[in-house]
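It is worth pausing here to work through a concrete case rather than discussing structure prediction in the abstract. The textbook approach is simple: state the sequence, then state the predicted structure, then interpret. We follow exactly that order.
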Amino acid sequence: MDTNLSINEDLSLGKKFFKFLAPSVVAMWVFSLYTMVDGIFVSKGAGELALASVNISMPFINFIFAISILFSTGASTIIAIYLGKKDIKSANETFSLNMATIIILSILIAIFTLLNIDKLATFLGATDSTMSMVKEYLGIIIIFNGFFIVSYSLEVIVKTDGFPVLATVGVLISAISNVILDYFFVIEFGWGVKGAAVATGISQVFSTIFFLSHFFRSKSTLKLSKFKFNFNTIKRILFIGFPDCTTELSGGIIIMLFNQNLLRFIGEDALISYSVICYVNTLVLMTMIGITQGMQPLASYYYGREELDNVKKLFKMGIVSVIVASVLIFAICMFFTPNIVSLFISPNQVELFKKSMDVFRIFSVSFLFMGYNVLISGFFASIEKPVYSTIISLARGLVIMVVSLVATILIFGGNGIWMSSTISEFICIFISIIILKKNLSLFTN
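Step two, the predicted structure:
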């Protein structure tokens, strides 16, 4: 039986790659941009302190997406390999088992976090001036957490099913509805951070319904089916998805560490500057993840077919894409710094605005190096070599980042915080290269 991934075999590998790359990157951009719009509406409608409160809550949102990535990356890789082997039954069973597991898990997360919301807000770093807004925002996001997890997981699997453009449409539905609801809830109704959270939650409900409906269409290869709970399959999913999960989860941990150290060494205004950086950093990271996700389904598919030459070519295409994206993003950040910062902070706040521009430019150097580590880690996950992927993800997202953060603070004081990400990403590239050389047989003809 042919699958949607095997259709159009007459297309060149480059065209297939672009067919998956463009929708994946666009989907990630849309997600990042409507997250930024959330911040813009909050800062304009409720003030800069509300923006800082949302930023303090971000590690929990990172945690939710990390859970989704954990399961979606693992499940989509296994599904793509089964599709490459034309084992549709096993692909459907894996898809259905994954869905049931993440629904149950999201319910458990909601119960546990709602019962401990005060402790959660304190743990995330809420101050006396932000505590009420942080709790207000978190309380609503927690209620909708299942839709966040299921929506993103379905988006990834829709691409694995061979419909990357449809995945982008689903993200657009979520983004457009979020922007419209943000305008009414935050600006018109004056609901502040609560309005932003409700808008985001409802938009995830819309995308979940849209993605879920795809799997009931005749064109879908994947279908929800009966399955038996298989611990070995769950373990396999978790093992493959762990590296990408680590990337997202580490991002949340780092935001929390940055917030705590910025408060300690610089002050509360630094949280506002960092909020701007976080939104742009998310956009850049999602661009690199989009490039990686454009490569992953095809790499897993050809790996399942044992066509290693195509797997190598896809990796090289991914590297070229990262080079182009990194240079363009860095140039944009350097030349348009005032325009970017003014989206969140009024130029009338002269001192805060100038300081935010200065630290934004310092931090932006890290965008030149980020993509290589994300792509290489994702590539190893796509060919079921999660140990290498995990090493890179943990090094990049947590271990080296924490060491760099401590070292730069000791050497440069509080201002060293803004340099730590660049140093971490740069060092991690050498680790990625060493791992690639140890697996040289995959990259030589």
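Step three, interpretation. DSSP finds 16 helices and no strands in the chain. The mean pLDDT is 87.
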